[in-house]
Amino acid sequence: MERGSNVYVVEGGERDRGRKMERGGDVYDSPQGVEIRGRYDHEFARILSREALEFVADLEREFRPRVKYAMACRKEAQARYDGGELPGFEPGSKWVRQGGWVCAPVPPAVADRRVEITGPVERKMIINALNSGAKVFMADFEDSLSPTWDNLMKGQVNLKDAVDGSINFVDSDRKREYKLNKENIAMLFVRPRGWHLPEAHIVIDGQPTTGCLVDFGLYFYHNYAAFRSLRGAGFGPFFYLPKMEHSREAAIWNAVFERAEDAARIPRGSIRATVLIETLPAVFQMDEILYELRDHSVGLNCGRWDYIFSYVKTFRAHPDRLLPDRVQVGMAQHFMKSYSDLLIHTCHKRGVHAMGGMAAQIPIKNDPAGNQAALDLVHKDKLREVRAGHDGTWVAHPGLVQVAIEVFNSHMANQPNQIQSSKRLDAANLTDEDLIQRPRGSRSLEGLRLNTRVGIQYIAAWLNGTGSVPLYNLMEDAATAEISRAQVWQWMKHGAVLDGDGVKGVRMGLELFGRVLDEEMIRIEREVGIEAFRKGIYRVAGKMFAQQCTSPVLHEFLTLDAYKHIVQLHPSSRI
Ligand SMILES: CC(=O)SCCNC(=O)CCNC(=O)[C@H](O)C(C)(C)COP(=O)(O)OP(=O)(O)OC[C@H]1O[C@@H](n2cnc3c(N)ncnc32)[C@H](O)[C@@H]1OP(=O)(O)O
Ligand SMILES: O=CC(=O)O
Ligand SMILES: [Mg+2]
Fold it and tell me: Pick the catalytic residue: 191, 316, 326, 485?
């Protein structure tokens, strides 16, 4: 990275006297005010160079106050929803919604994104995903990653090797070697964590760092040059941005991008990002978010799972908006269909991609009929998306790339996307009410049991360092698990009647939940086996799940609570 840009003003030689953190003889060479509290590793030291840490520290020092303000605004908005207000379009930004502006032209390297595979930044999976035949691989520090120090730092090492093309992996048990294909490699996008998550292992001026600024900063610093020459045809790096609730948060990202571009002395608009619309407040801010990022945008994506979670969270004080069983809240619900239609209309009006989302089905081993049924459901979901006008979609597994590609190929033929051909003018008049309409369906004891079983097993995996898992033949990650625990909390809080099984209804309450919890723990023990259960992590997870579901106030994020359990500070202490 170029020195002499405004990011690298050296203040009176202070930085040269920055502290070296002792780790049993090994050191991270960190600048003044930066303390690395994660374990030392020679590989990690490649990433945590003094210059890279200076870049992260400069981002943190500049943007920390804005991030804090944005988080306070989230709380203030939620207090209004708790007081009975409904989310809606803001009158003050009508001029943005009605303006005739468009985003910067889409770079040729990412014009065609018809199928995107996602997955955590794990070494073998990165290679498999880049080789999968998908157009894009979204490498994930977010919903599918448990942000342990090792996962994060190894993830950065892996991405650096992926960008320069040297990544390989040897599975000695299976005598298998993994390396990148010679051609037809997916384009790399990286998803940093959301604004709310801290990084406790990197302390700057006495405070934990903003997690996403660590993810973004380290990745950008080490890869922007190689990415632009080897991967992005002069553009990039490319990002996915999660869980925003308001355009002021997009404005922060835009400023971060500008800061990084200036530091690297690369042209404005080099960095490009797709924003996930996955919170209820953000659906009323889609134009505004694109406007803030108009020099850096490559579209929006329907993050359907977090979106459902956000519906529960936003309406947590509204007993008239209880969700039916999780399995019934799909894209056919009016509020979900309206959201995806409006997203397509908005993106295409502004000249950028409208990406579809993730079907939760994954291939099922040793059950051909079950596997075919799962593939059929994925096919149906992708067909709905391409017909609606989406420009591409997400898959969770390499075994689903082909199904999705065939659907998009047959409908888009040789066009790289549908930005010009599917304007969805019919969606222009969708109203606030369409976007928040109560989901239809029923609530059942079986729904409660499934939420409990899935929630506990997911938390157990996450605490053990795995952020996405197959459970009952579906992909589960932080977003899907959030639905499970928030839904149980909501039913409990409002004393929902569970009568969807066709039997006499039971009212949700502490006693019922306690009984279900005990019974489901027994079932989990039976399913995972006594050995695995004895290790104790399921009990910890069960306790955490129970606390979250019975807390008087809904916890903001499952992962914020759980994070305290995976932080390992050196010298050792707990946060
Ligand atoms: C709500 C959201 O945010 S969605 C986006 C975030 N979520 C995700 O990205 C989930 C990604 N998917 C996954 O993590 C995995 O597919 C899981 C956990 C659901 C299932 O994983 P597994 O049980 O390991 O699947 P399975 O055993 O069938 O894997 C077969 C092979 O495919 C690979 N594979 C599976 N999923 C992926 C993936 N997403 N990317 C790359 N490779 C993958 C496995 O590594 C394995 O490779 P190998 O044969 O070389 O050993
Ligand atoms: O991130 C995607 C989602 O569905 O949540
Ligand atoms: Mg999400």
Answer: 191
